[in-house]
Design brief:
- The protein has 7 helices and 7 strands.
- It is of the alpha/beta class.
- It has a 7-stranded mixed sheet, with helices on both faces.
């Protein structure tokens, strides 16, 4: 059984979708949900599915002993970032090299990097007049949104799409493709 942890900062729709995807799996178990925010609704979603949760605030997230001990206690072999807004410390990138994935709400390398998350991305895509947007699932590296791309999925945009419309289209792609891409990445371990 491969134990995975999901790192979240916000509402947790992707987190819950991943939990549901692996609920009946004989090979993969969501063993832990980690958030940097005690008010993250993702913690409530995880608790509803009887998934253990832990809050590691931003002030403690760079503490190698705290973070690694938490992951080792739950025998975590793979980490999924699902709307996690903190930079990942170098020690964790090294420890989980090619065993930690992130999803970005745009087609990298466009609209990535520091400050490019959530509505900021969709507003930038709209302002640029892009004809498409999408998601990028990539390995986590020591460069923000710079890890090797695993998969990209796109959706067409129209001139009348608002940033909120773009967000909804991108979210639909996330819900459809992130769990299956995680499953494929895990199969190669």
């Amino acid at each position: 059984m491969k134990n995975i942890a999901i790192f979240v900062s916000g509402n947790g729709t992707n987190c819950e979708n991943i939990i549901k995807h692996f609920a009946g799996s004989r090979d993969v178990r969501v063993a832990l949900v980690v958030s940097n925010r005690a008010d993250s609704y993702a913690l409530t979603r995880a608790a509803r599915h009887n998934i253990p949760t832990v809050v590691i605030p931003k002030s403690e997230f760079g503490n190698e002993a705290v973070l690694m001990d938490t992951l080792h206690r739950h025998d975590i072999c793979f980490i999924v970032l699902a709307g996690f807004l903190l930079m990942i410390p170098d020690f964790l990138v090294k420890a989980y090299d090619h065993r930690m994935v992130n999803i970005h709400p745009a087609l990298l390398p466009k609209y990535g990097g520091k400050g490019m998350y959530g509505h900021h991305v969709h507003e930038a895509v709209k302002a640029a007049g892009e004809k498409e947007s999408g998601i990028t699932i990539h390995w986590v590296s020591d460069v923000c949104d710079g890890g090797e791309i695993i998969a990209q999925y796109s959706t067409p945009l129209s001139e009348s799409d608002t940033p909120e419309d773009i967000a909804a289209k991108v979210h639909a792609l996330e819900m459809r493709h992130y769990p299956e891409t995680i499953e494929k990445a895990l199969a190669s371990l």
